[in-house]
């Protein structure tokens, strides 16, 4: 029995071994292992391609035996026409020796041509997040793009005949290697033992925002530690501008994060490409719950919270989102993961995003404006903010009340200077050996990394007693203080860091 490898993305990625054996019985191709309809149909495509090739190649003749194809592990549902090439090759190579450490993908035409399929690039991207390196045989029409994935050694063929000679002729195999690299991975930086891809351009710059020094400081802290943040202020004070510019000063992505972001994006039926910029998703408040969190009638489709993984999820006009949507947001914010269950699939996505919210202080927006009169009653304001629960606000690290007085003479920090501060804090976290940024630390890591001096600890304990802070709120404060200390290049959280962190806590 011989085997080759491929992968399936029916619900989540699984590496599949295609095994083949021949037995004395009525001639047929029997495929087992929870194969979907498109795989069952592959026997017809394989037979046609082999029959056509058998005129010129002896190994392509179907033997007068039963051919048993097993897709392992057998308990995983599988689908996709990219299994064709692996099945055909195993039939042809039964009497040959070959290197089995290969992933093989390709749909067969009836004439033996090898073609790509719609989901193949998505599969390759997800595969790149699970294996450190791999040798892959692919259709020529997708090989150049796949070769840009850093940890793949890609070989391209255009027909079943070429695929056969690839495994039987070493010189021919070497000639099929595809050499390509994406320019994004040519300019990297090394921090500790990790490689990162920096963003060096700021098409949207914080220098366009005047007189909001405290908000800009909060943005630096938020970006450096990936802390959830909410801006509240009058219309036109710079809330949405700050949220949109925050993306460009976020810490650089690792190669693995770039690949995963591209893999998630590929599930959204869009043309995915590698980017130094982290994802930015901004659903409208009229979006459905399934479009935000993922779902569908039968298949679990990816939603905005998963597409924002590793980047920013921005809710503008926060109070206009339904209470059911905002309450459902608590799980991905807390667990950094969302589970979607449907009739035919169950899937889990990472949701390690930075949540950004923007809201007016009241329906008319003038409650904080010193020059305009607010026309809203206390009842109107209460109704306006009714969908934002205390439990949701408890999961917000930074609350920023923006000034309504805009000083046009004070541009303050620009994105370049803010990015340098973010990088200072980011380097401290990576150099400390953290697997997560400060905003995503769990309780064990908080105890390990968020070390305070006595004065800082006293401040936090007094605040917890005075303001009746929950344990979650205390942990959030410690994590924000840790980021502030990192930006200041302090190993221990000091009193001033704790006080600044407490200044960003929301108090009703």
Automatic annotation (TrEMBL):
* Short name of one Pfam family: ChlI
Q: Which domain of life is it from?
A: Bacteria
The AAA+ ATPase domain covers 225-407
User: Which Gene3D superfamilies did the record assign?
Assistant: 3.30.230.10, P-loop containing nucleotide triphosphate hydrolases
SUPFAM superfamilies for this protein: P-loop containing nucleoside triphosphate hydrolases, Ribosomal protein S5 domain 2-like
Q: Which PANTHER family match?
A: COMPETENCE PROTEIN COMM (PTHR32039:SF7), MAGNESIUM-CHELATASE SUBUNIT CHLI (PTHR32039)
Family to which the UniProt record says this protein belongs? Belongs to the Mg-chelatase subunits D/I family. ComM subfamily.
| Name by which UniProt lists this protein | YifB family Mg chelatase-like AAA ATPase
Classification lineage:
Bacteria, Pseudomonadati, Campylobacterota, Epsilonproteobacteria, Campylobacterales
């Amino acid at each position: 029995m011989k085997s080759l490898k491929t992968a399936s993305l029916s619900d989540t990625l699984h590496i599949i071994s295609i095994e083949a054996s021949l037995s004395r019985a009525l001639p047929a191709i029997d495929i087992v292992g929870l194969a979907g309809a498109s795989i069952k149909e592959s026997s017809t495509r394989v037979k046609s391609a082999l029959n056509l090739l058998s005129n010129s190649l002896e190994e392509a003749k179907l033997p007068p035996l039963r051919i048993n194809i097993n897709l392992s592990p057998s308990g995983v549902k599988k689908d996709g026409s990219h299994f064709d090439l692996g099945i055909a090759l195993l039939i042809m190579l039964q009497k040959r020796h070959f290197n089995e450490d290969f992933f093989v993908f390709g749909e067969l035409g009836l004439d033996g041509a090898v073609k790509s399929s719609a989901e193949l690039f998505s599969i390759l991207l997800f595969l790149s997040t699970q294996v450190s390196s791999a040798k892959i045989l692919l259709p020529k029409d997708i090989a150049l793009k796949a070769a840009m994935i850093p940890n793949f050694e890609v070989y391209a063929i255009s027909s079943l005949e070429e695929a056969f000679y690839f495994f039987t002729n070493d010189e021919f195999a070497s000639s099929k290697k595809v050499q390509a690299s994406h320019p994004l991975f040519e300019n990297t930086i090394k921090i500790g033992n990790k490689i990162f891809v920096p963003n060096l351009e700021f098409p949207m710059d914080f220098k366009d925002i005047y007189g909001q020094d405290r908000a800009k400081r909060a943005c630096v802290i938020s970006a450096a530690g990936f802390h959830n943040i909410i801006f509240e202020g009058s219309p036109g004070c710079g809330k949405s501008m700050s949220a949109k510019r925050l993306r460009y000063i976020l810490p650089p992505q690792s190669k693995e994060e770039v690949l995963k972001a591209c893999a998630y994006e590929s599930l959204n039926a869009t043309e995915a490409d590698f980017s130094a910029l982290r994802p930015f998703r901004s659903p409208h408040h009229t979006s459905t719950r399934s479009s935000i969190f993922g779902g569908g009638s039968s298949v679990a489709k990816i939603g905005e919270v998963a597409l924002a993984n590793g980047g920013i999820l921005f809710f503008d006009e926060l109070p206009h989102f339904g209470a059911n949507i905002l309450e459902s947001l608590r799980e991905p914010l807390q667990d950094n993961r969302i589970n979607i269950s449907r009739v035919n699939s169950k899937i889990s996505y990472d949701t390690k995003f930075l949540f950004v919210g923007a809201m007016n202080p009241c329906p008319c927006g003038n409650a904080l404006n010193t020059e305009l009169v607010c026309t809203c009653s206390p009842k109107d304001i209460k109704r306006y903010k009714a969908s934002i629960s205390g439990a949701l606000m408890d999961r917000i690290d930074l609350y920023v009340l923006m000034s309504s007085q805009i000083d046009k003479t004070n541009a303050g920090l620009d994105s370049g200077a803010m990015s340098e501060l973010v990088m200072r804090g980011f380097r401290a976290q990576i150099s400390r050996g953290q697997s997560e940024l400060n905003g995503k630390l769990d309780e064990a890591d908080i105890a390990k990394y968020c070390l305070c001096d006595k004065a800082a600890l006293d401040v936090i304990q007094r605040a917890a007693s005075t303001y009746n802070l929950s344990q979650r709120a205390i942990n959030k404060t410690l994590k924000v203080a840790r980021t502030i200390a990192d930006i200041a290049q302090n190993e221990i959280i000091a009193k001033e860091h704790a006080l600044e962190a407490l200044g960003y806590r929301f108090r009703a």
